């Protein structure tokens, strides 16, 4: 089932990636091709089969909830693209 | 005294102990080798010669104080997906091009504790998405056996550095074959440990249910020594195994007579090069000569679906993991747009390369409303079938032997225009990754003058057995530490 350019744009919006018109055309073709190779999965009988999220027999591993030091603010902010008064600076989220 | 970079880590360790040379001399030899070949190979994104010499001096002090470990003073390449405090860590991406981590990954802490010397941060496909190291934002790595060919990927920088003598051992990471396939294409040893054997704390996330860090070396002993150093429980990664870790060096030099070897029929498919097939057949005969019971009738019917399962699950996990690169907290940031969303979308459009965007799109699609059940959930259910088939096989066999890659190294640029052709490189390494099982790739000879790799898959946390089998094979075959003329 080929992806339409509209679907590609919808997915790009969900993924927060800007695409050019050329990108949209190329990705529609490439993703349709890749997904087409996965069509055989549909024919596998998985009636009553539980999904595997990861291969280990581990679940709900908890740690003690203890106070511990975190990284110094200056070290964390050292990589920030923009900062002000010890905070990360961003564009307004709500305008 | 010259060309110390040709030594394996265990040979170098013996000579460091007997004071034949110092760690500083060993490191200088590797740095001189880097100066001679790095321009042609491009194994590193960030070489760290000053840090290496500083750590080498510390290593010499540890030898003097009697606190040296098997890795003290050994020059190591560290894949650039591994967070290193104070040393730029890019994951091969422009979006992290200026990121200097304020903390260390668990595995780098372990290397520092052991007294290893970091020669540099190794090149890789961006965010480990690729099988050729051509998807690095910093340019491709070249195969030391033939500079017109790819080294494999995504840990191609690590494999090339080991093979070219630009380090003695290396760390890589394996999500669907990213240690084993480049190890095979560069003629070195690589281990993908059991999922949960090595802490992922400080490993830049790609597919969280699949990612594992592992070693690359010039022989089985070096890879085992390196894996010993990084294995074990870490409270900062809840998926690490809390059980005690066996010392893999105890599994070296063992007889493997009577070992039950399963060879899955489904791996001998169209697309395998005749030269690769011939080397594998010879390898299987050698296992028989070593007294193993080799059964070529093992069937793992879901093998053909592993590629689809992996290329749905890994991109899905990646699309979530890579959501964090928003240009706000660290990394590349485009702030030319009028709104926050525009900035975020432009940051990601310009910061990520083509393959990474393709996989984010693929994963977002597989997780999106209307397609989740048909793709992501279906893939997880077929993953269960793959796991069950391996579990049944390990009731009858001790190890499973397959080729590592269907082909030898291919020319740079040959597959970059066809994403699916690139994905097919991983066809033999994906099934065990999906099942979380440990697997090693070891050299099994040349085809058309280029290295081929043999893969040995083991049961959960049974790294010991695959190391025993690989070491016995390596000794009988006589390949260890063979380096290309470069």
Please, how many helices of chain A? 3
Q: What is the mean pLDDT of chain A?
A: 93
Q: How does the helix and strand content of chain A classify structurally?
A: mainly alpha
**Topology of chain B as a string of helices (H) and strands (E):** HHEHEHEHEHEEHEHEHHHHEHHEEH
Give the strand tally of chain B. Answer: 11
Fold-level CATH name of chain B:
Amidase signature (AS) enzymes
Low-confidence stretches of chain A: none
- The CATH H-level superfamily of chain B is Amidase signature (AS) domain
Q: Tell how many strands the DSSP assignment of chain A holds.
A: 2
Strand content of chain A: under 5%
Number of domains of chain B: 1
Strand content of chain B: 5-15%
- Using the CA coordinates, give the radius of gyration of chain A: 23 Å
Shape of chain A: flat
Question: What would your notes on this structure say?
Answer:
The complex is a heterodimer of chains A (95) and B (486). With 95 residues, chain A is mainly α. Chain A has a domain of 44 residues: Glu-tRNAGln amidotransferase C subunit, N-terminal domain (Histone, subunit A, Orthogonal Bundle). Helix content of chain A is 35%, strand content 4%. Chain A is built from 3 helices and 2 strands, in the order αααββ. Chain A has a two-stranded antiparallel sheet. In chain A, strand 1 and strand 2 form a beta hairpin. Chain A is flat and about 55 Å long. Chain A starts with a helix and ends in a 7-residue tail after the last strand. The radius of gyration of chain B is 21 Å and the shape is globular. Chain B is an alpha/beta fold. Chain B has an 11-stranded mixed β-sheet with strand order 1-3-2-4-6-5-10-11-9-7-8, sandwiched between helices. In chain B, 39% of the residues lie in helices and 13% in strands. In chain B, helix 8 links the parallel strand 7 and strand 8. Chain B starts with 8 loop residues before the first helix and ends in a 9-residue tail after the last helix. Chain B contains 15 helices and 11 strands. Chain B has one domain: Amidase signature (AS) domain (Amidase signature (AS) enzymes, Alpha-Beta Complex). The mean pLDDT of chain B is 97. At the A-B interface, helix 1 and helix 2 of A face helix 9, helix 10, helix 11, helix 12 and helix 13 of B.
């Amino acid at each position: 089932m080929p992806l339409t350019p509209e679907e590609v744009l919808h997915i790009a919006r969900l993924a927060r990636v800007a695409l050019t018109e050329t990108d949209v055309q190329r990705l529609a073709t490439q993703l349709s091709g890749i997904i087409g190779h996965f069509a055989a999965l549909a024919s596998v009988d998985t009636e009553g089969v539980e999904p595997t999220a990861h291969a280990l027999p581990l679940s709900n591993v908890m740690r003690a909830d203890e106070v511990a030091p975190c990284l110094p603010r200056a070290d964390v902010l050292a990589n920030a693209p923009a900062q002000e008064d010890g905070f990360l600076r961003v564009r307004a989220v709500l305008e | 005294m010259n060309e110390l970079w040709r030594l394996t880590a265990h040979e170098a360790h013996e000579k460091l102990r007997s004071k034949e040379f110092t760690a500083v001399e060993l490191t200088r030899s590797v740095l001189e080798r880097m100066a001679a070949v790095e321009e042609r190979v491009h194994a590193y994104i960030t070489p760290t010669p000053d840090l290496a010499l500083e750590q080498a001096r510390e290593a010499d002090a540890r030898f003097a104080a009697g606190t040296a470990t098997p890795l003290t003073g050994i020059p190591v390449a560290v894949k650039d997906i591994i967070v290193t405090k104070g040393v730029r860590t890019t994951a091969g991406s422009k979006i992290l091009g200026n990121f200097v981590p304020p903390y260390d990954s668990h595995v780098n802490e372990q290397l520092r504790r052991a007294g290893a010397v970091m020669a540099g941060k190794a090149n890789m496909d961006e965010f480990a998405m690729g099988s050729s190291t051509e998807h690095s934002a910093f340019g491709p790595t070249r195969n030391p056996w033939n500079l017109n060919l790819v080294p494999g990927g995504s840990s191609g920088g690590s494999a090339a550095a080991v093979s070219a003598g630009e380090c003695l051992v290396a760390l890589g990471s394996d999500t669907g074959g990213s240690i084993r396939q480049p190890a095979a294409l560069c003629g070195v040893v690589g281990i993908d440990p059991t999922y949960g054997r090595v802490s992922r704390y400080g490993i830049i996330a790609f597919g969280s249910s699949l990612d594992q860090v592992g070693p690359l070396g010039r022989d089985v002993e070096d890879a085992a020594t390196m894996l010993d150093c990084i294995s074990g429980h870490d409270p900062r990664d809840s998926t690490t195994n809390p059980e005690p870790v066996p010392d893999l060096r105890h599994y070296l030099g063992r007889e493997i007579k009577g070992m039950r070897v399963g060879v899955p029929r489904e791996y001998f498919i169209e697309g395998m090069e005749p030269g690769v097939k011939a080397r594998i057949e010879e390898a299987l005969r050698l296992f028989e000569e070593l007294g193993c019971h080799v059964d070529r009738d093992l069937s793992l019917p879901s093998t053909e679906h592993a590629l689809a399962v992996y290329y749905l699950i890994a991109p899905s996990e990646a699309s979530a993991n890579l959501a964090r690169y928003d240009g706000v907290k660290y990394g590349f940031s485009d702030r030319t747009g009028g709104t926050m969303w525009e900035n975020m979308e432009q940051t990601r459009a310009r910061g990520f390369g083509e393959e990474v965007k393709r996989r984010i799109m693929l994963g977002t699609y597989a997780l999106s409303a209307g397609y989740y059940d048909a793709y992501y959930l279906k893939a997880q259910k077929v993953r269960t079938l793959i796991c069950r088939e391996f579990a049944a096989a390990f009731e009858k066999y001790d190890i499973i032997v397959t080729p590592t890659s269907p082909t030898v190294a291919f020319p740079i640029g040959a597959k970059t225009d066809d994403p699916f052709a690139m994905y097919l490189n991983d066809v033999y390494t994906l099934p065990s990754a999906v099942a979380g099982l440990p697997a090693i790739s070891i050299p099994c000879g040349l085809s058309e003058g280029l290295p081929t790799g043999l893969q040995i898959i083991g049961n959960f946390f049974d790294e010991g057995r695959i190391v025993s089998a690989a070491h016995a094979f390596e000794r009988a075959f006589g390949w260890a530490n063979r380096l290309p003329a470069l």
